[in-house]
Amino acid sequence: MLGVVAANTGVLPAAAAPGIQFSAKKLLRVGIVFLGLQLVLGDIVALGAPMLGVIVCVVAGGLLGTLALGRLLRVPKQLALLIACGFSICGAAAVAGAAGVTDPDDEHEEATVTAVALVVIFGTLMIPLVPLLGPVLGLSPDETGMWAGASIHEIAQVVAVGGILGGTALTLAVIVKLARVLLLAPVMAVLSLRIRRAAAANPAHPGSQPKLPPIVPGFILGFLAMVLLRSFVPLPDAVLATGQLLQTVLLAAAMFGLGCGVKIRSLLRVGGRPFALAALSTVLVAGIAFAGVLLVG
């Protein structure tokens, strides 16, 4: 939000542009790598097969459903894809990850910025709604925490809801959310494979070897390495605290950089269809998550 304010009040000098661009791209990817230090595979496995199945259904159903809705609403393909990834997996980090795979040359930078803005807007709206709706819908605090983790976009937003619920609900909310984050790696790999196949089938210059993205982007490999390190190597508390601090600082700087790319006039100019898709995607993901929590609970 600070980045959005700074970008639209004219307080940023032109000389800051290279640093902002660096933060929005490079620092974000390093932040995603350190995000892996939050995940312990044992904690995620402890959720049990039924809940893990729910999480897979949330991500898969959210992705496919949002893409289908995007076609119905005639939202541009790249923007619909970024909204689908951000709302189904882990917010701005998933948006940036998908953009890095599908749009490495920033030809659709406005789509990336728009998707991040929508993640912030709709994820923030979920913070008061989930704790209010949980009891009304007959969920216990722990079930509401699982619902929050399975449906809300950003980790920070999930933590905020867990803090409102208190007790073990916070722990459950975060673990469920981190299980969704773990699916970032396979989704990015699938996207990369699709891009590689499309590039090989339709090269920009016939007869030449097309430039193909790696099957798994480097920052995703780093993320997975950190997950394995945290899960199987006993790390001192000081190392974990430093890693969490670095992740927070790097992602905060990256979010500021992405926010600086949000121009209110440009956001209004995209029209109501992306906002409608974001709203429907939020309802879709929350609905799948709610049904899953009811079945598991």
UniProtKB/TrEMBL annotation:
<comment type="similarity">
    <text>Belongs to the UPF0324 family.</text>
</comment>
<dbReference type="InterPro" id="IPR018383">
    <property type="entry name" value="UPF0324_pro"/>
</dbReference>
<feature type="transmembrane region" description="Helical">
    <location>
        <begin position="113"/>
        <end position="134"/>
    </location>
</feature>
<protein>
    <submittedName>
        <fullName>Membrane protein</fullName>
    </submittedName>
</protein>
<feature type="transmembrane region" description="Helical">
    <location>
        <begin position="146"/>
        <end position="166"/>
    </location>
</feature>
<feature type="transmembrane region" description="Helical">
    <location>
        <begin position="40"/>
        <end position="67"/>
    </location>
</feature>
<dbReference type="GO" id="GO:0005886">
    <property type="term" value="C:plasma membrane"/>
</dbReference>
<feature type="transmembrane region" description="Helical">
    <location>
        <begin position="214"/>
        <end position="233"/>
    </location>
</feature>
<keyword id="KW-0472">Membrane</keyword>
<dbReference type="Pfam" id="PF03601">
    <property type="entry name" value="Cons_hypoth698"/>
</dbReference>
<keyword id="KW-0812">Transmembrane</keyword>
<feature type="transmembrane region" description="Helical">
    <location>
        <begin position="172"/>
        <end position="193"/>
    </location>
</feature>
<feature type="transmembrane region" description="Helical">
    <location>
        <begin position="245"/>
        <end position="264"/>
    </location>
</feature>
<feature type="transmembrane region" description="Helical">
    <location>
        <begin position="79"/>
        <end position="101"/>
    </location>
</feature>
<feature type="transmembrane region" description="Helical">
    <location>
        <begin position="276"/>
        <end position="296"/>
    </location>
</feature>
<keyword id="KW-1133">Transmembrane helix</keyword>
<keyword id="KW-1003">Cell membrane</keyword>
